[in-house]
Amino acid sequence: MGKVADIGSKRLINLAPDAWVKWVTQRPEVVAKEILGSEFHWISRETDVLVKAYSATHGDFLVLNELQLRYTAQMPLRMRAYTALAQERYRLPTYPVLINILPPPSTLTIVSSYEQEFLGLRAIQDYRVINLWEIDAEIVFQQPLPSLLPFVPILRGGGEVSVVQRALQALREDVQLNQLESLLAFFASFVLDTPLVQQIMRWDMAVLRESPWYQEIEQRGIQQGARRQLIRVLEQRFGEIPHEVEVRFEGESVEKLESLMDSAIAVNSLEEFVVILSA
Predict the structure, then answer these.
(1) What's the rounded Cα separation, in Å, for the pair 73 and 79?
(2) Where is pLDDT greater, at 250 or 211?
């Protein structure tokens, strides 16, 4: 596979937008009308896709799709902000959906709403959460849902060689889908040995690197490495670290974690470090 492939969220959803909106809303009467721009002034993300949809009951509305490699503690606030921005720009009711691709660290609990109360005022934003590892792989073939074919290996029951081969065959039978083979290979490598993955499909890493998810995986790996190193330094200096302190490192940038590492080395106590962390 030598040609460049667009394997971002918009490309995937655009493969079968009607099937996608029916699935994420769980309403068989909903149809997709068009995929809209999701750039809001200073915000532009590859993983957000806005679909203008229609149903006879509700009329026109927006389906806001956020495909997230791994859930982070910042997601509820992001879903609140993007939902409001979409509704303001297009003046249509908005149905927000968060699709988590891989399970988050055990320290994080996935929630399906944003809630804040400040000075007696409340802000609430509900959104639907879909965790791909909880989705039965068989529905991808039965419905069908071509947008989910590259994710089959990480779906429930999708990690068997025969199921991965079935997904690969479906991709290769459709000229619109065959560029997604590298993405399928990548997720297959989470559940199968790399030599086996290379045996059953062509794996071109140069193509895969075009995906925003691949770039996010690389960045997330660097972040997790910095986080582990910070925890190790703190434990070596001050003993066991409270869970609530570790949780606060999730989602922090590499630059922030490196700054905290400097502080962890310089401070004289864990309490002093927590003060800096809270600043």
Answers:
(1) 11
(2) 250
Residues 274 and 276: their CA atoms lie apart, in Å, by: 5
Measured CA to CA in angstroms, residue 208 lies from 151, 190, 217 at distances of 14, 15, 12
Residue of 103, 73, 104, 89 lying closest to 37 (CA atoms): 89
Phi, psi (deg, nearest 5) at residue 161: -55, -40
DSSP codes, 12-55: HHTTSHHHHHHHHHT-TT-EEEEEEP--BTTB--TTEEEEEEEE
Judge residue 155's burial from the number of C-beta atoms within 10 Å of its C-beta, 0-12 exposed, 13-18 middle, 19 or more buried.
buried
Residue 210 has pLDDT above 60, yes or no: no
Q: Using CA atoms, how far apart are residues 128 and 126, in angstroms rounded to an integer? A: 7
Smallest CA-to-CA distance from 249 within 277, 273, 216 is with 277
pTM: 0.70
pLDDT digits 0-9 by tens, 51-81:
999 999 999 999 999 988 889 888 999 999 9
Alpha helices in 91-160 (DSSP H): 138-142
Q: How far is CA 111 from the centre of its chain?
A: 14
Q: Using CA atoms, how far apart are residues 102 and 110, in angstroms rounded to an integer?
A: 12
Q: At what angle do helices 270-278 and 212-238 cross, to 10 degrees?
A: 150
CA atoms within 13 A on the CB side of 195: 0
